[in-house]
Structures are given as C-alpha cells and as structure tokens.
Design brief:
The structure is a single chain. The protein is of the alpha/beta class. The protein has 2 domains: 309 residues, Alpha-Beta Complex (Adenylosuccinate Synthetase, Chain A, domain 3); 97 residues, Adenylosuccinate Synthetase, subunit A, domain 2 (Orthogonal Bundle), CATH 1.10.300. Helix content is 31%, strand content 21%. It contains 11 helices and 19 strands. Strands 9-7-5-2-10-1-11-14-18-19 form a 10-stranded mixed beta sheet, with helices on both faces. Strands 12, 13, 15, 16 and 17 form a 5-stranded mixed beta sheet that branches. The protein is globular. The two termini are 12 Å apart. The structure holds inosinic acid (IMP).
Length: 425
C-alpha cells in the first residue's frame, strides 16, 4: 500500500473515517495531521458505532500504531475522555503516540471562540465552538502551549502565565466576562500531562524510523479541502490545512515519501456552518438527502446543508491536493431520487467557471450549471461489485472520472466496514 494520504475533497464529513478504517487494514501506522476535536469520524464495526474526534480511526485495529501529529491542536481533557471511552469498550489504546510539538487547546480558547462568534452576529463562521481557531491563532502568534509543556511543572508555569494573562485581558477587559484561574488551569493541565505523558514524544522521528523499516503509513485527514485556510471558501474555513500539503507540516513527513493521495467525496455534497455552497438544495430534495444520508454533525449534532455534487469544487480539490485517486462515498443515499444532478460548472455574468473561484466566499451569484441523470429505485446498500450498480450510478462515477481526470478507486455503498466497491486492481 505504501504511504497514502486520505483527504476530504469537500467541506468535511465525506466519510473519511470509514475509508481510513478500511484502508488501515493494510497499513502499519495511522497519523492525524491537522485539526482538532472539531472533527468527528464515525466508524461502524459489526454494528458497533464509534465516534472519534481526536484519535485516528486506526485505533480500532489493535496492532496498529496511531499518531497525533504536530499539526493537530489537542484539547487534553477531551483526549483523555476519548481514550477512557475506548478502553471501556475494550479497545486497546497502548499504541497511541502524541507529538510533543502539537499545540494545546485550553478552556479559554473555547470561551473565546464562542464569544467571538457571537460578536460577529450575521457574519459568524458557524464554528464548532471547540476553541480551534483561537488555538491556531495563538500558535501563529507564538504564544501557544505545546503538549510537551504540560508534562513539566516549570516549563508549564513559564509558558502558561503570559498566555492566560493574555486570554484574561481579552475576556475581562474587552469582552467583560469572567477570566480563568491560572493556578486551577495549571493543576488540571499537569494532571492531564501525567496521564498523557508516556504517549508524548518526537513523532516525526518515530515516523521516519517506521518509513525506513518499510512500514506502510496512512495519513488521515480531518475536515476537507474547502475548509482549508488557504484553499477553502475563506473566510468560512477552519484554521488549519486539511489538504495534502498539511501532511508535511502537520506530521513532519517529507512530500517525496508520499505515494498515493486519495480524495474522498460524497456522491452529493454537504456543509455545516456558514458560507457559500452553490449547489445547496433548500427545499424538499435537500431535506430528503439529509434524512436519507443521516446528515447531522458528529461533533455538534447540527443538521448539515445538502446539495448536488459540485464538480468545480471537486476539480479544485484534485488540483490543490494533487489527488491520484478518488473515493465516492454514500452513493447508496441517492437511491430513490427521480433525478440526480451534477454541477459541471458555474456561470456568472456570461462567463463559465470550471474551478472554485477565490471570491466564492464573498459573491453569492455564481450559478451552477447541471448535468441531469435519471435516478434509480433499487436499494444498493452493501453492493460490492461495480457492474451491479444501476446504469446511472455507474454513469455518475464515470462522469467524475472524465471531468476530474482522476480514477475512482473506491465506491462506498453503505455505513458498514464491508460496504465498499474496490476498483483498485
Ligand atoms: P472550526 O474548525 O470549529 O473553527 O469551524 C470552522 C468551520 O469549519 C465551520 O464551518 C465548521 O462547521 C467547519 N468544520 C470544522 N470541522 C469540521 C468537520 O469535521 N466537518 C465539517 N465541518 C467542519
């Protein structure tokens, strides 16, 4: 399998967790490289549903090593809880490693995230409210706290004081709300540091060692390309690099060692939070997609906005990630629709656009131009053979391949681990 990246080709929630879990079978090491507990990955194993936010989906395979890389922002309290929940269900967490360089999300980040969203009013981003943006902002401003800091009393004291003082100044003097006790925060962090300490280390060195040993490494993306801070629908984005470029900086792994970049896209599209979405369906069809696809956020429970597959957005994802393969997920959800539409391009003021324009976050008047396919009635959940798909479902896959120039190597046909069509050979 070599070294593979799994990246979201849309606005997140493409079903990466399931694909990671499936591909993890032939990997030795699974790595998260960006985002934090804003992510939510659902994996179903033998009717048991696991919801993961920070820990790589590979954890469900006992013998695999899992890494949380330096590009991830870690809320240590959430991580300890997630570990405990897995252990309670008999999942071993012994093989988890956390980068000493990963930044810490504090309760004050979360409070700031929510206050700043409220202040924006109509202009809000619709964040998950988990403190992710403020934590990355502190990282970039060079006042952040790293996971290595919570394992050392003296270092924590030195790093925590200016950060909490800064947060308290914002909270108390600008926003007029209560700040945080540094002493209490420090105590809590040291306790979490005690629990997590044995897992914290130089994960890029470990990765390089495994690479030299010839082990197969799988990089598990969170969020999606259209939420990337550089290549997403700015400003309606997250604060990290969910795309394949994020692997190098977020895991400390060189681009020359990557073999396959697999983009995951639904057969339609969804988005949570605010921001532009040209193919959004606001009426009954959107509601039907939401119900059939169970499109509700794993992290916040918010209903996801649903729309038709958007090829300009997908071509953009192919380009900025250098995708070498695609997975089309949740094609089974489209069964029962009379017509299925695919947006081939946008048009605006007499011009057509085959790629996602940079001002999409600011201009609302790009109108999608559609290809229409006739629908199919038959339930295709669990189908494992491409030839057995209804003609329109096959056509959808072929259109994606033709329009993006990238082979669709996997088609996911249901939530279960085995509901998949493997076209890799
Ligand atoms: P934040 O990452 O919490 O700052 O949220 C910024 C934007 O990214 C919001 O629109 C969120 O809804 C979206 N977002 C963040 N994480 C995910 C995810 O895992 N799936 C889908 N959308 C996400």
């Amino acid at each position: 399998m070599a070294n593979t990246v799994i990246v979201g080709a849309q606005w997140g929630d493409e079903g990466k967790g399931k694909i990671t879990d499936w591909m993890a079978r032939s990997a030795d090491v699974i790595v998260r490289y960006a985002g934090g507990n804003n992510a939510g990955h659902t994996v179903v194993v033998e009717d048991e549903k696991y919801e993961l936010h920070l820990i790589p989906s590979g954890i469900l395979h006992e013998e695999k090593e899992c890494i949380i890389g330096s590009g991830v922002v870690v809320n240590p309290g959430v991580l300890v809880e997630e570990l405990e929940k897995l252990r309670e269900r008999g999942v071993s967490t012994d093989n988890l490693h956390i980068s000493s360089r990963a930044h810490v999300v504090l309760p004050s980040h979360q409070k700031l995230d929510n206050i700043e969203e409220k202040r924006k009013g109509e202009e809000k981003i619709g964040t998950t409210g988990r403190g992710i943006g403020p934590a990355y902002a502190d990282k970039a401003a060079r006042r952040g706290l790293r996971m290595m800091d919570i394992t050392d009393d003296r270092r924590l004291e030195k790093r925590l004081k200016p950060l909490v003082d800064y947060h308290n100044k914002l909270l108390e003097e600008i926003y007029g709300v209560e700040g945080f006790s540094r002493r209490k925060l420090k105590e809590e962090l040291l306790q979490l540091g005690d629990e997590l300490g044995p897992m914290i280390g130089e994960t890029s060195v470990l990765l390089e060692k495994r690479r030299r040993q010839g082990r197969d490494i799988l990089f598990e993306g969170a969020q999606g390309t259209l939420l990337d801070i550089d290549f997403g629908t700015y400003p309606y984005v997250t604060s990290s690099h969910p795309g394949s470029g994020g692997v190098c900086s977020g895991a400390g792994f060189g681009p020359t060692h990557l073999d396959e970049i697999m983009g995951v896209s639904k057969a339609y599209i969804t988005r949570v939070g605010e921001g532009p979405m040209p193919t959004e369906l606001r009426g009954d069809t959107g509601e039907r997609l939401r119900e059939k696809g169970q499109e509700f956020g794993v992290t916040t429970g918010r209903p996801r906005r649903c729309g038709w597959l958007d090829l300009p957005a997908l071509r953009h994802a192919v380009t900025v990630n250098g995708l070498t393969a695609l997975t089309i997920s949740k094609i089974d959800v489209l069964s029962g629709f009379e017509e299925i539409m695919i947006c081939r391009e946008y048009s605006r003021q007499g011009r057509s656009y085959e790629y996602l324009p940079a001002d999409l976050g600011l201009e609302a008047d790009y109108s999608p131009q559609y290809i229409t396919l006739s629908g199919w009635e038959r339930d295709i959940t669990g189908c494992q053979d491409f030839a057995e798909l209804p003609p329109s479902a096959r056509e959808l896959i072929e259109i994606v391949e033709e329009e993006t120039g990238v082979p669709v190597k996997l088609v996911s046909t249901g939530p279960d681990r085995e509901d998949i069509i493997d076209r890799r050979s």
